[in-house]
What does this fold into?
Amino acid sequence: MDTHRQRWGWLYVAPFAVVFLTFLVAPLGYAFWMSLHTKTLAQGEAFSGLANYEKAFTDPIFLEGLVRVLVYVAVMVPIQIAVALVAALVLDTLATRLSKGSRLAIFVPYAIPGVIGALMWGFLYSPRFGPATDLFSMFGATAPSFLGEDMIFASLVNIVTWQWSGYYMIIIYAALRGVDPSVYEAARIDGASGLQIATRIKVPMISSSMVMVVIFSLIGTLQFFTEPQVLRSVAQGAIPTSYTPNMYAYSLAFSYSQFNYASTISFALGIVVFLGSYVFLFLTRKQSGLK
It folds into this structure.
């Protein structure tokens, strides 16, 4: 009987396994193989081992983009988590129809494809026909250049926060709804205020979910690509082709046909993402429940 069940289990898993192996594992394996080779017009393709990785981690362009996304991590991750946490805590206290509508309104930006969202914000930021220009002119002021070098960092932080905070809010809200309400009742009987319940009971009890949300945000920010790539053409030269490591890899592959080195840059970024995630999980192993 157990063998029969195992066969049916493998049968149901097989379609996913085929897709997973074909469209994820195989491309990753091929990309890693490419990252270990160097191709030139004179000598053709030759095995170079880890030489490409040594070059990547000493490449000033890659390192500059990496430092830039680390700055985005330091700024954007706390903002996203704070917005999502506050929204989830507020919605958790509501027991009316307003709560459902509010959850949907906050989550909707995540349902919009990243490319569409970036194009929309590009229109809103436009100094020529964007509504921000008209709004500032109504008060007799000159609108700042949201796509200029001085404002592009804040503009991108705003776009990503708008798009992803709702997703993180849903995760945190679901964790809050899983907490036994009797815990809150006991705290109220003991004289705890709403703020104390939120900060001293709710947040500690969902610490594992908070760690997961931070990991998601950390990984997504380190792989920053879609928003700056879409806005680059209208950003008045504020976003170069090497603005982030992913953009640098994309430019190497599709503008200069350096597919081998582009694969190396991608895996080098993957190493940084893995190390960053591992260090964070290690530092928060008590909160996440890991040993």
